[in-house]
Amino acid sequence: MTTERLPLLMLPGLLCDPVAWAATAALLPQYDCRVPAWGALDTIGAMADHVLASTSEPHFALAGHSMGGRVALEVVRRAPQRVTHLALLDTGYQALPEGEAAEKERSGRAALLARAREAGMRAMGQVWATGMVHPDQIGTPLFDAILDMIERSHPDQFAAQIHALLGRPDATSLLGEVHCPTLVLCGRQDTWSPLARHEVMAGLMPNAVLSVVEDSGHMSPMERAQDVADAMQAWLARPLSPTFSSQARPA
């Protein structure tokens, strides 16, 4: 009798698709890796509902990168009994700040959207993605793959996802209630979601382990797939909570 593989839901970030997770997923063949698509969904809550509605299994492991990490936390808020393991990569947990910081974020995102509508998604990506990777990755085939991924999206999808991020819920109060084995991972050179934020986040979670990926920016699952997969292997090997049945155990 064969044992079914544990579903591992890999939630993508802003303007990301399965390619963002592909290299890491290929190194985790013993898990049933799945990457949802956000389509025109424009709130973090709607994205979380989509994840739950599209997953028939009662239990699954959950990993979210960047915006996907915020969606993962919202999935846990809605259905903690279904999540065996949680991984949060290069992400955040706080709502949009108030005052000048909020206006700076709104205007920055609006400028990128305007460029996408006027010059095309790839031209916008040339500006945006430069700050999303380790400096050594700029101009490499990996950087081109990121631009290709951005170009596969439409400005209307970009607008929907910006709307979701600007309206993101605050998960601060949730962190202390997450008791499943948790991985908090960040690229050392991530300037978009810096390491200091992940150190605080891991410290607020009772069963979290912090992993720092060296020589990586924000796109760690693409930039350092082997290091990310190694950290995820160790995370997925951690014992399940007694809440979950033996049927949810990894193969």
UniProtKB/TrEMBL annotation:
Signal peptide, first to last residue: 1-22
Any GO molecular function: hydrolase activity
Domain AB hydrolase-1 positions: 42-224
Keyword Lyase: no
Keyword Cell cycle: no
Entry keywords, A to Z: Hydrolase, Signal
InterPro entries named in the record: AB_hydrolase_1, AB_hydrolase_fold, AB_hydrolase_sf
One Pfam family cited in the UniProt record for this chain: Abhydrolase_1
Superkingdom: Bacteria
Protein name in the entry: Alpha/beta hydrolase fold protein
